[in-house]
Amino acid sequence: MTLDKIAILIKKASLQFDKISNKALDPYEISSTQYKILKFLFAEKEHKARITDLEIFLSATHPTTIGHIDYLEKKGLVERVANPNDNRGKLITPTKKAYSLEKELIKIGDDIENELTNKLNDKEKEEMVDLLKKMLGM
Fold this sequence. Notes:
With 138 residues, the chain is α+β, with helices and mostly antiparallel strands. The protein is 64% helix and 12% strand. The protein has helices at residues 6-25, 32-43, 51-58, 62-74, 96-116, 122-135; strands at residues 49-50, 78-83, 86-94. The longest helix has 21 residues, at 96-116. The model has no long low-confidence stretch (mean pLDDT 91).
């Protein structure tokens, strides 16, 4: 098997990201996916999101997303609140505990990205972002 196939290299990069991020996030007892949920919520307008928005962002199934939300809720990092636009739905929002960790978590995210891309110069990083966005139709 050749290692110069794009799909294989993307998967290897993803595994490397998981390895680096899980080590960095271990003291917080959250996974890289749970970190991504928090980061998404911090960036969202009003810091709230529907579960379906998180599913789309994560490219994950409903049960998988709910499992991550349940875990973060048990850790006291997110809560479910009523959705004023949908009586049946809930919105997920960070708790005060999550906000108290926001700056640390954002820094950890920056550190993870720097470690993952430390062999690339700024121009190569920009090109990488552009190419990945193009590949993903963004």
